[in-house]
Structures are given as C-alpha cells and as structure tokens.
Design goal:
This protein has about 450 residues and is an alpha/beta fold. It has 13 helices and 19 strands. Helix content is about 35%, strand content about 20%. Strand 16 and strand 17 (about 405-410) form a beta hairpin. Helix 12 (about 315-325) runs parallel beside helix 13. The structure holds S-adenosylmethionine and iron/sulfur cluster.
C-alpha cells in the first residue's frame, strides 16, 4: 500500500524551495504527495521564525495537525524549517503529539527519520546548524508541470541586522559551486521550466572559488547561456553590497528580468544605523539613480519595517518621504516584531503595538496609490509576458511581465510557457488586464515565431 505525505509550507521562497526538495526525496522513496493532511501517513510543517505572527500560525497549525491523530493514530508529524532550528527539543516537550524536529540544515534526513520512527524508534531532533546542507539531488519529472522554479544559490547570512533571526536559524553564508547550480537549472529546463529565481539572503555575497569579487555577476553571465531558459530573476540584494558590476547586469545580461528587490527597511538614517543595515538613505537613493540610469524600465520593490525600537514620528515621515521620492513599484511592509536573541529585542524605547499598526496602515495606503498609478501608466502599452497558467478565476491566462507585474488575458492554454506580447487594457492595484497582440508570439526558445494563426 502506498504511503502519502503532506507538507504545509510557511514563510519565504527558501522554505518553498526546501519543501520541494524534501518532497522529491520522499517521492524517490515511493511516497505520494497529498493535499489533504487527513489522508497522510507523514505530515510536515515547514516553518518561518521571522516574525511572531508566523510563529504563532505555525503552532496553531501544528495543534490542528496533532488533533488529526485522534482519528489516524499512525500518522507521523514533523516540524522543520526555522522554528524547528530555533526551538529544537523544546518543541517535543511542548507538543507531546509531535514526533520529530528537523532543523534547516538536516532536511535530507526526513526519509530516514520516518523509517526509524515507523520501526518503533523514539522521537527525534536533528538540528545541527554546522552541517553543510544544500541539496544536490533533483528528481526527474518533479517540475514537469512548472514554468518557473526557485533555485537556492547560497544559504545563511553573515549580516546580523539587529532585528533579524535569520543568521541564527540559517547559519553562516555558504555559496553553492556554479557547476552545481548550472546542472540543477539544466535539469529544470529539461523538465519544462522557463524561468528561475535565484535565492540567497544577500546574492551580492555569492562567492565561487574561481571568481572572487565578481562571483554573482559572473554566475549570471553563465546562466544567461543556458539554452531554453528564458528568464532569470534573483532575490535578495542587500543595498550595502549592491555593486556597479551587478547594476550593469541589468543592461548586459539579456535574460535577467528588469526587476530588483532591494529592501530599504527604513528611510531614517538613525533607524538604519540602529538596525545595523550598513547604508544611509543617501546611499540608497544613489543606487536607485544608478539602476534607473542603466535601465530606465527596471522595477524596484522593497521591504520596509515600521515601529522599530526608537522610531519617532519624524523617522517614520522619512520612510514615507523615501517611498514618495523613489516611487517603488511595490513594497512588502511589516510591523517590527521582537525576535528573542536578536540585538533589537533587548533595545529600549519600543514603539507601542497600536502605533506600529497605525504606521503600517498609513504606509500601505501610501504605497497602494503609487502602485496603482504606476500600473495605470502601463495602460495602452505593449508588454512581454511569460504565460504561467490559468488566472485565479480560471477563465483567463495569467503571467508576469519582466518587471514582475501580474497580467491576465483571454486565450487558450496552448500558450503555456511561452513569451507573448500583450497590450494592457486595464490596471488594478495588484494586477493588469490585457489583450494578446495577434500577429506575434515568441516561442519557448525565446525566438519570435512570426504570424500568430488565430
Ligand atoms: N535578506 C533579506 C534582506 O536583507 O533584506 C531579507 C530577509 S527577511 C527573511 C525578509 C524581510 O522580513 C526583511 O527584509 C524584513 O523587512 C522583514 N523582517 C525581518 N525581521 C523582522 C522583524 N523582526 N520584524 C519585522 N520584520 C522583519
Ligand atoms: Fe536578515 Fe539582514 Fe541577513 Fe537579510 S541581511 S537575512 S535582514 S540579517
């Protein structure tokens, strides 16, 4: 009888990448995936520890999953990811129904841990942060229905921003060798993937032994040569390390999408200093100017934290000022959340929860208007879209522009995985609506196909 697994993934793209790889390992051991945890023999929760809200969500999901054991007593439940790494064995004490805990560097042990437990072994914690973990195995066919995929190129972080838990739960920076990355992307392309997003907490720190100093831009140059790969994206680049070399890639690397996610966090120099970000607002403005000079169409998105300890009304106004000056295409904004063990959690002059909520609301409304206005500027323009699948409502196709904006348009599904040209008809805050330009499509090899017969 076949065994089923269910993985619930919370948090960032890195967790999605990790879950995919654990799923591949399990499928290689004849497990089958299931969307329904009630039918699973193994339930995994891949957790995020970046903010308290994510942590609470993970515990409440775990509680619900443990509740399923009343009806299906042989199901095994494991917690993996950042909370698992941070809390380790204390999770087993707190949740008697939890069977095992796997830290961020030991994900490859999941199938073995399962076998061990089914043979009657005791509850397990595997959370050694010193292990070298990046996956090297890919399961042929796993990505066969996917147009895009994440690829982790480096793990960990050495920056220790004062608010952030990541360096404590993901360890020090480790880069993957370029050959391994190229091999993985070639395998993905063989399975039909057309776009990859390279993942790292700070891709500017990517180092390969062969090319110190220019590691990341040199990697981009190599990936640009992969036949059948249409688009390359990356996230995240830290403003303190964004080099002229990488900025130049937005002009020189043909397959690199014109979009950069460049987290600013705050517009106030005093707050940036206390966050230990290592740059000033002036430096950031200079980067934006350089990026736009190299490629005027480059979309810039950012992360912002409001209510950091000691943030005054005038600090917050400086954040709004940066948002107004730069006109980001979009931002992800968060209320500061205390993370135990970080420098900021011990800081005085905490901003009240009410103030944090109020500032977040103001900032999000401010940005929403900018995003909508920028989207409206695209009405009437022709954009290139990589067709990814059916829209949420199911009656249209959906894809993204190189600048990462969602575009929905009507057509049949034969265009999946193709780059097409679409004229924008309507703009909303979160998406654009367009019309396929009849006459041209660009084939999956990226070459203009000529007449569109329809
Ligand atoms: N490495 C990326 C960088 O340096 O920008 C970001 C990684 S972090 C997982 C994603 C975002 O979560 C950060 O950019 C920050 O805005 C937010 N974040 C991290 N720690 C936070 C905290 N304690 N409270 C609120 N937001 C936080
Ligand atoms: Fe966290 Fe800063 Fe590292 Fe980003 S660069 S993961 S915010 S410590």
């Amino acid at each position: 009888m076949s065994r089923h697994f269910h993985i619930a993934t919370m948090g960032c793209q890195m967790n999605e990448y990790d879950s995919d790889h654990v799923a591949q390992l399990l499928q290689a051991e004849d497990f089958k995936p299931t969307e329904d945890p009630r039918g699973a023999d193994l339930i995994l929760i891949n957790t995020c520890a970046v903010r308290e809200k994510a942590e609470q969500k993970a515990y409440s999901l775990l509680g619900r999953m443990i509740g399923l054991k009343k009806r299906r007593s042989r199901v095994l439940i494991g917690m993996m990811g950042c909370i698992a790494q941070q809390q380790g064995s204390s999770l087993l004490e707190r949740f008697p129904g939890l069977d095992f805990v796997i830290g961020t560097k030991e994900l490859e042990t999941v199938p073995r841990v399962f076998e061990n437990l089914t043979k009657g072994g005791g509850r397990i914690v595997a959370a050694d942060l010193t292990k070298l973990s990046i996956f090297s195995q890919s399961n042929p066919g796993y990505f066969k229905d996917r147009i895009k995929s994440f690829v982790t190129i480096m793990e960990g972080c050495d920056n220790f921003c004062s608010y952030c838990i990541v360096p404590y739960v993901r360890g020090r920076e480790v880069s993957r060798p370029p050959d391994e990355i190229i091999k993985e992307i070639n395998e993905l392309v063989e399975q039909g993937v057309k776009e990859v997003t390279l993942l790292g907490q700070n891709v500017n720190s990517y180092r390969s032994s062969e090319n110190q100093g220019k590691g990341f831009s040199s990697l981009l140059g190599k990936l640009n040569n992969i036949e059948g790969l249409l688009r390359i994206r990356f996230t995240t680049s830290h403003p303190k390390d964004l080099s002229d070399d990488l900025i130049g890639c937005f002009k020189d690397i043909e397959k690199l999408c014109p979009h950069i996610h460049l987290p600013l966090q705050s517009g106030s120099n005093h707050v940036l200093k206390s966050m230990k970000r290592g740059y000033t607002r002036e430096h950031y403005l200079n980067l934006v100017e350089k990026l736009r000079r190299v490629n005027p169409d480059v979309a810039i998105t950012s992360d912002m934290i409001v209510g950091f300890p000691g943030e005054t009304e005038s600090d917050f106004d400086l954040t709004l000022d940066m948002v107004k000056r730069i006109e980001f295409d979009n931002i992800y904004s968060f209320k500061y959340s205390d993370r135990e063990g970080t420098l900021a959690s011990g800081m005085e002059r905490k901003v009240s929860l009410q103030k944090r909520a109020e500032r977040l609301r103001i900032l999000q409304q401010f940005q929403k208007e900018i995003t909508l206005r920028k989207n409206q500027e695209l009405v009437g323009q022709e954009v290139e879209v990589l067709v990814e699948g059916k829209s949420k409502k199911g009656n249209e196709l959906t894809g993204r522009t190189g600048s990462n904006k969602v575009v929905n348009f009507c057509f049949n599904s034969e265009l999946l995985g193709n780059l097409v040209r679409v004229r924008i008809k309507n703009a909303y805050a979160n998406s654009l609506k367009g019309e396929l330009i009849h006459g041209f499509s660009i084939s999956s090899t990226g070459v203009l196909d000529g007449k569109w017969e329809n």
